[in-house]
Design goal:
The complex is a heterodimer. About 10% of the residues of chain A have low confidence. Chain A is mostly helical. In chain A, α2 packs across α4 and α5 packs across α8. In chain B, about 65% of the residues lie in helices and about 0% in strands. In chain B, α5 crosses α6, α5 packs antiparallel against α9 and α6 packs across α7. Classes of the chains: A mainly alpha, B mainly alpha. Chains A and B meet through α2, α3, α4, α5 and α6 of A and α1, α3, α4 and α7 of B.
Chain lengths: ~180, ~200
């Protein structure tokens, strides 16, 4: 598989088609983060498009020694923040069709209980403030490290750890089993 | 210790720190509870369905990029020729142009952080503040971003941001735009710096 670096170099050398290889590779992740953060399919789609358009324009400023995914998600996070600021609103309830995914293992009873708690978590995450919501999304939904999240959000790792600690406290209070 | 917990989960502690933390975890109920919370959150997050990415996204991006030129090679050549320091000098010269502020205009918030003599580093820092969403951009990055913002599709956004930064300093804003737009039009960086120097001294362009 062609590496990110090769695609980027090719794009900068004049092969615009190479950029679409990056789009295909990262569109799921960018859309998913935007969707978790914004809570709306429509907004996530808009932010994902803006993110790639912006990334295309800024590609020459990307430092190839750093992970492209982190850089791209930083662009996405900024676009999503801008969107929320422009609209001056909190995210919509995450009530859209989420598509199919295999259910958890462990029998129907356990699956139902887990699913019910997971749904409550989703509602609780949507109720967090913007910064906590983004940190939680990247940490627990995307499985990113503190270092990666720090790069994406432009936040000091220490501040980020405190933010996550507080977010967990808030989430478990809302989940009712703090 | 919850900070160490995150590092431990990421595997970024060195061996001695890891051993110490694991010993602590065996004794500290609060840390074990926090660990359990982390694990629960990860499990619940994994149990939620993933949003289905619209099949139309790739095509939409393709449509949005259609007709756009690839990333500013001409500008980059100019910047590479001048180097980051020269780009910062150019920006500093424009930023600190004497006479750019009209009499009676209030000093903008950033003026206090941009000394009259205009250290390139500080000027670049001030520019970086305006484009704060780009984090710790290098002076070359900042110069590039200013150029980028001045290109056609982003002119209004650039003006909005510059107005926010400069307040009433419309004349300085105009000078910046003139010099930078000329850069986009292909003047060599050295030539531009010389021109910016003239602008800074209030001379003809």
């Amino acid at each position: 598989m062609t590496s990110d670096r090769e695609l980027i170099e090719s794009c900068l050398a004049g092969d615009g088609e190479s950029f679409h290889g990056l789009v295909e590779r990262y569109q799921d992740r960018v859309y998913r983060v935007a969707w978790r953060y914004l809570g709306s399919h429509h907004d996530a789609l808009e932010v994902a498009q803006e993110t790639f358009a912006r990334a295309f324009g800024k590609l020459a400023t990307y430092d190839p020694d750093r992970p492209f995914a982190t850089w791209l998600l930083a662009v996405a996070a900024n676009r999503a923040r801008d969107l929320l600021r422009r609209r001056g609103r909190r995210p919509e309830r995450l009530a859209e069709d989420l598509g199919d995914r295999p259910g958890p293992e462990g029998g129907p009873e356990m699956a139902a209980s887990l699913k019910e708690r997971a749904e409550r978590l989703r509602a609780a995450v949507a109720g967090l403030d913007e910064e906590k919501r983004l940190a939680v999304t990247l940490r627990y939904f995307e499985g990113m490290t503190i270092g990666e999240i720090a790069e994406v959000t432009g936040t000091d790792p220490g501040t980020l750890k405190v933010r996550l600690f507080r977010a967990r406290k808030e989430l478990f209070r809302k989940l009712g089993d703090a | 210790m919850h900070e160490k917990l995150e590092d431990w989960l990421d595997g970024t502690l060195d061996p001695s720190e890891r051993a110490a933390f694991e010993a602590h975890l065996g004794e500290c109920g609060a840390c074990r509870e926090e660990f359990a919370r982390c694990r629960t959150l990860a499990e619940l997050a994994a149990a939620l369905p993933r949003p289905a990415v619209p099949a139309s996204l790739g095509a939409a991006v393709r449509g949005r990029l259609a007709g756009r030129s690839r990333p500013r090679s001409r500008l980059l050549r100019a910047l590479a020729f001048a180097g980051a320091a020269a780009a910062a000098v150019l920006l500093a010269a424009v930023l600190t142009a004497p006479g750019a502020r009209r009499p009676g205009d209030p000093a903008p918030a950033h003026a206090a952080r941009t000394p009259a003599e205009g250290s390139p580093a500080l000027a670049a820092t001030a520019l970086g503040d305006w484009f704060e969403q780009f984090g710790n951009a290098s002076s070359e990055d900042v110069a590039f971003l200013v150029f980028e913002a001045l290109e056609l599709d982003l002119v209004s956004e650039a003006r909005r941001r510059l107005r926010g930064a400069f307040g009433a300093e419309r004349e300085r804003l105009r000078l910046m735009e003139e010099v930078l737009v000329q850069a986009v039009n292909g003047s060599s960086a050295h030539h531009l710096i010389a021109e910016a120097g003239l602008v800074a001294r209030g001379g003809p362009r």
